[in-house]
Structure prediction request, 138 residues.
Amino acid sequence: MPVYQNPQQFYAVLEEGFRRMAADPQALADFQRRRMAVALHTSDPETVTVIDSRVNPTQVSYGVAAGKSDLALKMPTDLLHAILMKEAGVRQSFTSGAVQVTGSIFRALQLADLFHQIQRVYPQVRQDLAAGKVEARL
Prediction:
């Protein structure tokens, strides 16, 4: 059974995670310097999340991939969950082909810090949402 039953559950966790990261000016600083838009497509459930650091502050949109992204990543939602829970390695997931990359693989490798920043907040966000400590906004 998938970790997330529907896109709204997944988006709620990501939205809260990015909200927490935005509260720390250093959390997205490296990604902000990269000036790129990344479209993250996941399956089971199907989701699209665009993280755009071409604008300041970094903007995140859910459910739509409007405009052209510099990089697109495709993977099962459960794999992204495993990466963010540190149950699967970022580099291994990319190099094994489990994460499909459209665009420069070198740009994709520059996302390591972004993934580490999300990993820092993701487990607590999931726990807080499950316990009702935070209300989903989406």
The mean pLDDT is 92. The chain has one domain: 7-129. Residues 112-130 form the longest helix (19 residues). The longest strand covers residues 37-43.
